[in-house]
Design brief:
Helix content: over 70%
Oligomer: single chain
Distance between the termini: 73 Å
Strand content: under 5%
Strand order of the largest sheet: 1-2
Shape: globular
Number of strands: 2
Radius of gyration: 24 Å
Length: about 575
């Protein structure tokens, strides 16, 4: 069967599975809609959290960035995985013990203020819109190639599917759909990785093949070959970095603390029955995430070598190929690969200097990898199904955060306290529909490639939520004035910096114009530090926190029956 037939078959079957689960697990109450009734098993929640966490940025774009940037892309690996550990150890158990539905719920009650709740709602919506734009872009990229439709139609089709099961099933439907999506995406990621590792290095374990010698008998290791090819073609050596140390630090830190402040990941820990289950599900999620994240550098390296050799390589007899590779022709039709024949010789050439004739979108590398390696058509279609699963699973979680922030935190807990459960559920679904329409527009007109857009969302989360949550758990003195001032300072500063360099003056988006050499992807760390400073200074000169809030913080940090040792 052709790639397109396989793609329709596998994506159609996976969509039928997702929708079937959503119908079976339809939410009938606000508790089921928001937190799946609070009774999800730890292993299932860990798998759902991993799917929620590993978005299109992880599945589609992470290996693409590593493939093009090499060592410099290690910030994404370190930041995203390290951040999840930070979330699991420092925040998740305490927030689960607090027992509320959402992050704005925690901030509103902890800081005894409807204004604090409203600021948190605005921050959550802003962060989630930025994040979901990257997911819808990923959906469009997959559909544009494998279903041979315009990116616009790809985004619309994906949006309709995710709206159906997210809005119908709420968190209950999303949770079990995400378990299925994790199984699809990890199988789709690992099968071609194992195939290609065997073909290139003879080792079936991609993580080991990454550091092995090539199977062509040359005695050269994969990374040595990549370094040689990169330098020969005018690129920086693959294992060398160009980013400054300060930028590497700030991007890594922004991704780490941004992870710990992401509302759609935090809400997953409210879906388990006990605090102990929150810790266990965090451990399971870390294991499930590590399978993909330890494979991504290998996938990136395999794709880079094969891409360069198929574009610039030979036909096996030592003579240059007369025709462009089929995979390039296929992707040219989507507009995500462009070729300008500068020397009019009829042959493509890819390099890192003025000789370059190719413009290749980073987001296609994982999806194109099986085609480049000439794997069977069913494997190519499987990767398409995995990419869709990754994008839709995270989109659903983000939509839920937006809808609950509007219906529960803004309306029920603030503007319209007397609405019924049924009305609240209706408002949640309307909010999700409006959010999806706006996100689809951003997916059709993205500000940057997928992982970069997602990195901005992490920076915004780091600058707004992380300090408020950490201080809310570990400082009895932090008051509402300090928290509100800090959140507003952090998100306004970070958003302004990103908008200035990405939209207002993109021509200035380079190291010589950045503040202290910090890129827009890393500015969230500085925003977070400003948040901490402003919050602590304002708290020092404003009213004392009420006694009952001090007792609330005490109850969060210490289990019942722990004795009086912590007081004296």
């Amino acid at each position: 069967m052709s790639i397109q037939v396989w793609t329709y078959l596998l994506i159609g079957l996976s969509f039928a599975l997702y929708i079937g689960i959503a119908i079976r697990a339809r939410a009938g109450s606000t508790k089921e809609f928001y937190v799946a009734g609070g009774g999800v098993p730890a292993v299932a929640n860990g798998m759902a959290t991993a799917a929620d966490w590993m978005s299109a940025a992880s599945f589609i774009s992470l290996a693409g960035i590593i493939s093009f940037l090499g060592y410099d892309a290690s910030v994404y690996l370190m930041g995203w995985t390290g951040g999840y550990v930070l979330l699991a150890l420092c925040l998740a158990p305490y927030l689960r013990k607090f027992g509320k539905f959402t992050v704005p719920d925690f901030i509103g009650d902890r800081y005894y203020s409807q204004l604090a709740r409203t600021v948190a709602v605005i921050c959550a919506i802003f962060i989630c819109f930025t994040y979901i734009a990257g997911q819808m872009r990923g959906v469009g990229v997959v559909f544009s190639r494998f279903l041979e439709v315009e990116v616009t139609w790809g985004v619309i089709i994906g949006g309709v599917i995710v709206f159906f099961y997210a809005v119908l099933g709420g968190m209950k439907g999303i949770t079990y759909t995400q378990v299925a999506q994790y199984c699809v995406l990890i199988f789709a990621y690992m099968v071609p990785a194992i195939f290609i590792s065997l073909l290139m290095t003879g080792n079936p374990v991609p993580q080991l093949g990454f550091g092995s010698e090539l199977a062509d008998g040359s005695g050269v290791s994969l990374l040595d070959k990549l370094d040689g090819l990169s330098k020969e073609l005018g690129f920086t050596a693959y294992t060398d970095g160009k980013k400054s140390t300060i930028d590497v630090f700030f991007i890594t830190a922004a991704l780490m603390v941004g992870t710990a402040g992401l509302p759609h990941v935090i809400v997953r820990f409210f879906t388990v029955a006990k605090v102990h289950d929150a810790r266990r599900s965090a451990g399971w999620a870390l294991l499930f995430i590590a399978i993909l994240y330890t494979t991504a550098p290998a996938v990136a390296s395999f794709a880079r070598v094969n891409m360069i050799e198929t574009i610039n390589g030979t036909d096996g007899a030592g003579t240059l190929q007369e025709e462009s590779p089929q995979w390039v022709t296929n992707w040219q039709e989507t507009g995500l690969i462009k070729w300008e024949d500068k020397n009019q010789d009829g042959r493509m050439f890819y390099s890192g200097d003025e000789r370059n004739e190719m413009k290749i979108d980073r987001d296609i590398m994982v999806l194109a990898n099986p085609e480049i390696a000439q794997l069977p058509n069913w494997v190519i279609a499987l990767v398409a199904a995995g990419g869709i699963a990754a994008a839709l699973s995270t989109s659903a979680g983000l939509l839920l955060v937006i809808s609950t922030s509007v219906s529960h935190d803004l309306l029920k807990r603030n503007l319209m306290p007397n609405i019924s459960d049924r009305q609240e559920l209706g408002y949640a679904r309307i909010a999700a529909a409006v959010a999806l329409a706006a996100a689809s527009y951003l997916g059709i007109n993205p500000p940057d490639y997928v992982a970069s857009v997602v990195a901005f969302a992490f920076g915004l989360a780091a600058a707004s939520f992380f300090p408020a949550i950490i201080l809310g758990i570990f400082s009895k003195r932090m008051n509402k004035e300090g928290a509100i001032a800090g959140m507003l300072t952090g998100i306004i500063f970070t958003a302004a910096y990103i908008i200035y360099f990405k939209f207002v003056h993109p021509e200035l988006n380079s190291a010589e114009h950045w503040w202290f050499g910090i890129s827009p992807e890393g500015i969230g760390t500085l925003g977070m530090l400003l948040n901490f400073v402003v919050a602590l200074v304002v708290q020092r000169f404003t009213a004392k926190t009420p006694d009952e809030i001090g007792e609330l913080v005490e109850s969060l940090r210490y289990p019942k029956g722990a004795g009086e040792a912590h007081v004296h």
